[in-house]
Amino acid sequence: MISFTQYNLDKIENLLNELGYKVRYEKGNFKTGACVIQNSKVIVVNRFSNLEIKILSLIQLLKDFDLEKEQLDEKQHTFFKSLIKTTA
After folding, report:
1. Distances (CA, A) of 67 to 11, 19, 41, 76
2. What is the number of other CB atoms lying within 10 angstroms of the CB of residue 14?
3. How far is CA 13 from CA 10, 29, 54, in A?
């Protein structure tokens, strides 16, 4: 299981940036921790969510992505696989 630290949140954000997504932290009236805006490459995370919710929400979004191994370098792809496996 991944530890819920700011370091791991930063690693997930970097992974999403490599995939072309921009992660924004905004206040809002949405109950989930994160959402993708109308099939755009912007992910909005509720800034008032705690660190655990932010990380779990981003991992849940990553699970929905169709990802080719060539899109990431080996280290990031290994990290991606570990994220998906730990929350399965």
Report:
1. 17, 9, 14, 12
2. 13
3. 5, 22, 11
> What's the one-letter identity of residue 65?
F
pLDDT at 31: 67
**Mean pLDDT split into 10-residue runs, the chain, 88 residues:** 92 92 85 72 88 92 80 88 77
Residue of 57, 87, 74 whose CA lies nearest to 18? 74
How far is residue 70's CA from residue 48's CA, in Å, rounded to a whole number? 35
Tell me the two tokens of residue 87: 């929350």
User: Which H or E element spans position 24?
Assistant: strand 22-26
What six digits make up the tokens of 76?
A: 């990031």
What does DSSP say about strands 34-36 and 22-26: parallel, antiparallel, or unpaired? unpaired
